[in-house]
Write a structure and sequence with these properties.
Elements: E1 3-7, E2 13-17, H1 24-30, E3 50-53, H2 55-58, H3 66-71, E4 83-85, E5 98-101
Parallel strand pairs: 1-5
Antiparallel strand pairs: 1-2, 3-4, 3-5
Bound molecules: FE2/S2 (inorganic) cluster (FES).
């Protein structure tokens, strides 16, 4: 199973094996990782699953859809170049070791 490193706002990293095809958001919620809220359950409608993706993984991610792009303008914490919605990132072996940082606030 590919591993995701969830880094909280304080810099603490929690490594979790997330099943392939599950989203980064689902991996967090299933394992009680704080810092990802996911109010809409993964429909790209709430922007409370906002993460900052570690630079070296950005090029490996699926392209951002129009809806995700729009929702990222509504995040509680500032949008950055490496902002993504974690519900829109499906895990695969190619993403093993993916590191995402949670923003200061989701709501
Ligand atoms: S869970 Fe709502 S936008 Fe990702």
């Amino acid at each position: 199973m590919p591993l995701v490193n969830y880094v909280d706002h304080g810099g603490n990293s929690t490594p979790i094996d997330v099943p392939a095809n599950d989203s980064v958001m689902e991996g967090a919620i299933a394992n009680g990782v704080e810092g990802i809220v996911a109010e809409c359950g993964g429909s790209a409608m709430c922007a409370t699953c906002h993460v900052y993706v570690r630079e070296e993984f950005l090029a490996l991610l699926p392209p951002m859809g129009e809806v995700e792009d729009t929702m990222l303008d509504l995040t509680a914490s500032e949008r950055r170049d490496n902002s993504r919605l974690s519900c829109q990132i499906r895990m695969s072996d190619a993403l093993d070791g993916l590191t995402v940082e949670m923003p200061e606030a989701q709501t």
